[in-house]
Specification:
single chain, 142 residues, Arc Repressor Mutant, subunit A, two-stranded antiparallel ribbon, elongated
Amino acid sequence: MRLSNFTDYSLRVLIYLALKGDKLSTVAEIAESYKISKNHLVKVVHNLSKLGVIESFKGKGGGLRLKIDPKALNIGKLVRDLENDTKLVECFSDEGECQINGACKLKAALKKAQNSFYLTLEEYYLSDVVSNKSGLSDALSL
């Protein structure tokens, strides 16, 4: 399974904010640290804010920070929310037109594999992902 860039960038933003703790961060500094598009991150941050995972403060001195403790932010549940419309194959969709859909057993196997993927991710929290704070901070020049 492959995660979308949107989910990848969402996880990167959360890692960055977890490393910064209570200090506010800006989209521009996160984009610069990861060398990714600021425009993409604006959409990511907006979505994370809508999900209630981060909080955003506008105006001079504004910025972003985590709204949820990293020990409580489950990676698997977040990825499920972010990838909610992932269809590994055509038959996962109601609009699928596969000729063997009714007789094929591949759909069940792929659903089981996808579920196993998410269950494995649910074993991890953001705090686990950022447990190497010094290494991550060095890599991001924090």
